[in-house]
Structure formats: structure tokens, C-alpha cells
Fold:
Amino acid sequence: MHTMWKGTISFGLVNIPVKMHAATENKDVRLRQLHKECQTPIRYQKVCPNCDREVENEEIVKAYEYAKNKFVVLDEEELKALQNEQEDKAVEIVDFVKLEEIDPIYFEKSYYLSPNEGGGKAYGLLRSALKDTGKIGVAKMIIRSKEQLAVIRVYENTLVAETIHFPDEVRSVQDVPNVPDEVKTVKKELDTAKMLIEQLTTEFDPEKYKDEYRTALLELIEAKKNNEETTTAAPKDKPAADVSDNLMDALQASLDRAKKEKPKPKQPKQTKKKSTTKTKKTGTKG
Structure:
């Protein structure tokens, strides 16, 4: 399992060197977007609308927009210094609480923790202490340049760091529109609803639940593949053909424009008429 972070978890005077591994994975079936005409994958470019050209990664800087079109630019060195300053700190468990005291709305992502070299004994100590007390630890940590609030708990025989949202990241329920304060319910309807809940109540078994849409989508893709309903994108490496085509188009457009503009030059005749007129006027004056 890939190690994505190494650090130390501490509570009191106990330090536990640990490695962190992603506990979950996204299994969404990713679909690409193709150009319908030639079946070529669509490419997304980073373009500066002011310079009207594509920009490379090294030309891009990070900034905070504090007002409309007003920015504070932050150097990579400044961001790196802040990140290093925080990453050097150990993940310190500051409180121990009961798991049921935290509403599920706060939970974000799970990470497995394994002991790093020399940390096995302290790892086992924390695991046993959490199991026996039924508590979880609340800690702060830096993951991918962001400070996270996290809980340390036991899942089966492994310590898990569960990132949770800070309180100001959870939107107020008062902002949810059209939520009724009180609704009068008919007793018979309520009793029936309770009976239905009781009939459908069971022990939670995660293996029971499957992503039926993903399964059906994969089956559809496999069936199309087996029936050879596939397509191949046009080869990318043909810049010479593109350039010559563009040049030919430009030449042809220029030629067409020239043909349209050709039967125009009658200026010499107009010039002669003007000079004749001037001569006549002069002769009249004399």
C-alpha cells in the first residue's frame, strides 16, 4: 500500500512514528470527451484571455482574489515556507472524546495509519487504550498543504485518521430554504411509518450494498468492446500535415479574395476626367 505521508502522532509524552495510507479509493468509471466528428479526445488548455495564448505551468503564479479582479500574489517560496513550518510539527492529539458525539456531517476522508520503524509498541499502546476506553482522539495535521482537523480511532485492528471539517466549513442549517418548522402528522400515518421502519431495520452489512450503476455501465462498455463497437483516435503526431493544410487554406483564401477584388481598378479613368474638368474650368476663366 502506497505511503502518502510520514510523521509522528503524540499524546502526552508518547510519540508514535507512523505512515499514512489512503483508506478509500474512488471507483467512478471515468468517461473521456471525444470530438464527435473525428473521435479525437478533447484537450483542455490553460489560456490567458489577455495575452490570447496558451501558457505553460512555469508561467503561472498563485494568488488570492480579495476583491473583484484584485489579487494578492503569493510566491511558491512563501507557500513552501508556511507548509514546511506546519509539517515539522507532530500530529498532536489534543482531546479525547466519544465517537457518537461527532455528527457524521463533519467526517470527510479516512486514512489508515501503520507504525513506522520503532513505533510498533507505542502504536499498540494507543490502539489498546482507545479500545478499552471507547474514546477517539481529536488532533490537527497537515495534508496536501492544508491544515486538517482529524480524529484518531480504531478500525478493526488498525488506527485510522479520519479528517473532519472545521465548524466554519459546515454550512448553517438555517440557510437551507423551505424547511418547515412544524408539520402536523396524522397519528395513523406516523404509526404506519414507524412499523415500516421496524420491518426494514437490520444490522448494517456494508457488503450488502453494491454500486449497480457502475456495474451496469462496465457491462455495457464490455459488451460494446466485444462487439467491436470501438473507435480509434486520430494519430497525434502529424504537425507537418496540419501546418501545410493551414498554409494551403490561407493561400486559397488569399487567392479567392484577390479574384473578388480584381475587377476594381478604374481609377486611371477617374483621374483623367478630373484633369479634363480642371482644363475646361481654366479655359472658361480665361
